[in-house]
UniProtKB/TrEMBL annotation, chain A:
<feature type="signal peptide">
    <location>
        <begin position="1"/>
        <end position="20"/>
    </location>
</feature>
<comment type="similarity">
    <text>Belongs to the BMP lipoprotein family.</text>
</comment>
<dbReference type="InterPro" id="IPR003760">
    <property type="entry name" value="PnrA-like"/>
</dbReference>
<protein>
    <submittedName>
        <fullName>Lipoprotein yufN</fullName>
    </submittedName>
</protein>
<feature type="domain" description="ABC transporter substrate-binding protein PnrA-like">
    <location>
        <begin position="39"/>
        <end position="351"/>
    </location>
</feature>
<keyword id="KW-1003">Cell membrane</keyword>
<dbReference type="Pfam" id="PF02608">
    <property type="entry name" value="Bmp"/>
</dbReference>
<dbReference type="InterPro" id="IPR050957">
    <property type="entry name" value="BMP_lipoprotein"/>
</dbReference>
<keyword id="KW-0472">Membrane</keyword>
Automatic annotation (TrEMBL), chain B:
<feature type="transmembrane region" description="Helical">
    <location>
        <begin position="110"/>
        <end position="132"/>
    </location>
</feature>
<feature type="transmembrane region" description="Helical">
    <location>
        <begin position="35"/>
        <end position="53"/>
    </location>
</feature>
<keyword id="KW-1133">Transmembrane helix</keyword>
<feature type="transmembrane region" description="Helical">
    <location>
        <begin position="238"/>
        <end position="261"/>
    </location>
</feature>
<keyword id="KW-1003">Cell membrane</keyword>
<dbReference type="GO" id="GO:0005886">
    <property type="term" value="C:plasma membrane"/>
</dbReference>
<keyword id="KW-0472">Membrane</keyword>
<dbReference type="Pfam" id="PF02653">
    <property type="entry name" value="BPD_transp_2"/>
</dbReference>
<feature type="transmembrane region" description="Helical">
    <location>
        <begin position="190"/>
        <end position="208"/>
    </location>
</feature>
Amino acid sequence: MKKRIGLVLSVLFAAGTLLSACGQAGNNAGGGNQKDTFSVAMVTDVGGIDDKSFNQSAWEGLQKFGKDNGLEKGRGGYDYLQSSSDADYATNLNKLVRSDFDLIFGIGYLMGDAVKEVAKQNPKKHFAIVDTVVDEPNVASITFKEHEGSFLVGVVAGLMTKTNKIGFVGGMEIPLIEKFESGFRAGVKAVNPKATVEVQYAGAFDQADKGKAIASSMYASGIDIIYHAAGATGNGVFSEAKDLKKKDPNREIWVIGVDKDQAPEGEVKVGGKTYNVTLTSMVKRVDVAVYDTAKRAKEGDFPGGKTIEYGLPENGVGIAPTQDNIPENVLKTVDEWKQKIIKGEVKVPTNRKEYEQFAATIK
Amino acid sequence: MKSNRLQQFLIPLLAVLLGMIAGSIVMLASGYNPIAGFGALVYGAFGDTYYIGETIRQTTPYILTGLAVAFAFRTGLFNIGVEGQLIVGWLAAVWVGVSFDLPKIIHLPLALLAAALAGALWGLIPGVLKAYLKVHEVIITIMMNYIALHVTNAIIRSVLSDEGFKSKPVKESASLHSDFFDAITHHSTMHYGIFIAVAAAFVMWFLLERTTKGFELRAVGFNQHASQYAGMNVRANIILAMVISGAFAGVAGAMEGLGTFGNISTKAGFTGLGFDGIAVALIGGNNAFGILLSALLFGALKVGALEMPSSAGVPTELVDIIIALIIFFVASSYMIRWLLSRWQKGAE
């Protein structure tokens, strides 16, 4: 019997040594042959790489950059790491630093602290953060004027609501999402002061079930258009709208998507006919911003310590190209407002206080 | 006797190996290289000092949540509320950490104490309800988790920040941050909390195995009626067990609040540390020393798993399955014990 246990033990040890040796060998190989090319990677927040919005858009930007520059996915090329909890942010960023990527993106407002800390510890590395500002010389901050884009979809909602009841579903109640909320409400107010906007926060960016529950109660209360700024939570809003559409194809209910053109999320087939519950989307070109920043870094023009803001003129935010559900005259009004914002005739509020001031100017 | 000891040591190892074999089959079936996959796992957990630091950091709260669950188990209670007790402990530690200006020698222990007390309070409520009204602790503790989560979020928003989503960082005098560990582990987030966690394991062992009160607590766990007949106060012991269990969980929260994060932010959902603590306790055989080892296993799996997608290309979802398989086999070590005994009988 002892012999057998001895045998098992030695097999175990052998396996252990073998495995750890492999790990190290793999790593060394990865670390050795990459110095000649530019490599770039990103860390997602908890929404995950396939959130159909924010993180996915960033990854599409990186993939495009990789393809255009002949890079391969993985170490020494372009890659991503996914965070399953906020404890993973710093670990994942550090992992990428240690894998020797030339530029590392932190995707999302919530990752600000982690990026700041890791950037301080690695002053020679280049980082970029999307959606918030990190004041370090080796970090490029990318922000968007989400309020301006949200204003435009607010105009659409204000003009197209039949019940004069509109909903807004936010992810977490943080200043970033307040920009979406305030801009959207201002847009509605500007074209349809009679309409009310009900605002609810799900408290998370990754819980589609909560999004579905909120959407269900909103639609039941007579709201006919919901704008969501809730990442993967918003997928629940879509699934509720589609369920309702399946039950009653004639009911006019809409979702306004966010970050990406979310028209594909809204498609629903009822009795051989295809409907789409996506009215339009407020696109935020995270992909463009990620691409641009990676390109600049590759060309030796890394905007470290600077904040780059993408707004309407830069086409960093705006209304999605899919506009099939919107009539011509509404689109015309949207364009008029867009020009007004670009010219600076209208100042779109970025938070609730500014919204109150804005609302006071409209009767 | 000697071979029994050896077996106790061998069975968990064998279980891990079986889990890895099952994981390999999954990886092979999905077209990934299991050797590269597990190589990445091991490398990501112990590959160099940075990863070792991260693994120890992750192990720290697991030890404490494992102890919390195990302590309740040993006294016949099932504390599912470790998660909630951890969150209130985290909040209390950070609250004390940001609100006072005290010398470190007072401030840090005070913050830890606050965390323990908050966790204890969160354990006291289900304890009292169980002892006096016979309400099952599982139901109460599950509900207490939600109360903890949402109350904590509300307090972070309204009291600890100005309608924001996170508190200020705790003062240096209350922080567990270690410049020494930072330096030797290349900026990992490892902190001094590991000493507290190991000390807590010793405290639990001493309390349960070497004191009269511990004997009483265990006796109540074995048989309430017999204990009562023997003149023990069953109600008081149930309450005490939940309070101590909650205190361990609260200190686990302090590890996150004073060490890993240095602040607290609003949470969309549970951290999972408390629920994983149940598995840590079970795999560790509800024994203080066993928990140290099983917490290390969990910490290593958790941190090492992050490496699998990047260097072996295994998708995150598959990594979750593989980790779950390993835990499954470790948890079902009874099956292995049975097989082993059959095998031995056959050989003799």
